[in-house]
Design goal:
The complex is a heterodimer. Chain A is α+β, with helices and mostly antiparallel strands. Chain A has one domain (2-82): Arc Repressor Mutant, subunit A. Chain A has 3 helices and 6 strands. In chain A, the strands form 2 sheets. Chain A has a 3-stranded antiparallel β-sheet. In chain A, strands 2-3-4 form a 3-stranded antiparallel β-sheet. Chain A is globular, with a radius of gyration of 13 Å. The mean pLDDT of chain A is 94. Chain B is an alpha/beta fold. Chain B has one domain (6-309): P-loop containing nucleotide triphosphate hydrolases (Rossmann fold). Chain B is 47% helix and 11% strand. Chain B contains 13 helices and 8 strands. Chain B has helices at 6-11, 42-52, 63-67, 88-97, 109-119, 127-138, 161-167, 180-189, 200-220, 231-236, 238-246, 252-262, 282-309, and strands spanning 16-21, 26-30, 58-60, 78-81, 103-106, 149-152, 173-177, 226-230. The longest helix of chain B is centred in the C-terminal third of the chain and has 28 residues, at 282-309. Chain B starts with 5 loop residues before the first helix and ends in a 7-residue tail after the last helix. Classes of the chains: A alpha+beta, B alpha/beta. Chain A binds chain B through residues 10, 12-17, 19, 21, 23, 25-28, 30, and chain B through 119, 159-160, 162-163, 205, 208-209, 212-213, 216-217, 220, 283-284, 286-287, 290-291, 295.
Amino acid sequence: MQISRNGDWLSADTGEERVMMSVQSGNYVTLSRVGARIWELLEKPTDVTAVCARLTEEFDVTADMCRADVDVFLREMETAKAIVMEPSPE
Amino acid sequence: MTQPDSHLYSRLRGWTPIAFHPENGTVEWADLRGHNFDQPFFSRTLERWRAQDPRPTVHTDLQALAALDDEPSVEPDLIIAHPSRCGSTLLARLAAATVAPSILISEPEIFAALLNHNLKGGLEAPIEPILRQVVRAHGRIHSGWEGRYIVKLPSNMSRYLPVFRRAFPDAPMVWLQRRPDEILESNLNNPARPPTPLPPEAMVRWIVRRLTLAFMAAATFVDDKIAVLDYRDLALDPFASLAGLMHFEPTPGDLARMHAVTQLHGHNNRPYTPREKQPLPKGLQAIARETLDPMYRALGARAQRRAFTGMGPPCR
């Protein structure tokens, strides 16, 4: 699954959180430290396997737990229209 | 889409839409004719109406807003946005006091309910005409002469400034702001009520989040017709601030009405009393300094450029 950022989102660090707001819609999301890192990893279109590979290197988390958490996070970001997920090109 | 109920709509001429119910997409109307819209918050206008004249409300579909939009209405003379704790209630009351009687619609729940519902994808029709209709519906001409029409948004609606601009392309707007550390201190001292009760730590995050979002919204709203006003200037000389903002020369009668407004706190109707400020925790000082101050300063710089070029909102 190919994951890309969707639209212009502004972000601001507020200590423990990163607050992000869509310039187009005014919608907003707040990200934890890990969520903010995933957002950074999505600067260029990528896939969930690559994201999880980086996160398991950088954080103390098992691959299975990482994948489950990342899947939930990506679904929430898709619902907020912050990302789009499309089938990877063949 | 249901068929318009023209008989019901004609009965609602002169009524005011007071609530939007997203669960069934209905608008709730109240007959507020004869009641001045002059309270510091619109919810208090409604409380007063309920206490004095509690006639039943009527629910319609959204189409009623369009069907009744041909009624004579004034359009906003000033739309006030702010990140909270900046004197916006004082500014709104002062602006409404410049001409009596004026219409003061401050933080009405229906605006937020419609805009939030639209953001969730709940509206089939474009939001701009609906917002325009509901704002105009609060500005109905009942007495033959309504002075000024002042709309004050709650701080968390700053993100909808672009929608208000598209709905009212010529309406004067002002972003009223204050040093972020002072806003944080004020919010910590006397927090607003979150949608659900929060433990103290989450409460602090909620305050910071709301403030950050409000500043982000203002900073990204690039608009020729929005003025930027600082709390310190408003506090220093409220009359000059308002006269500059609304481009009018106050008469002695105007000044007397405006002076009366400054004597009592809009939130509690008590005289203003200075309060000793509490030191801000270091973590919050850092957030104010590193995240919020750059946006505050950038917006302040816009105000200075505007003053230099002499641009400002017109006022009828």
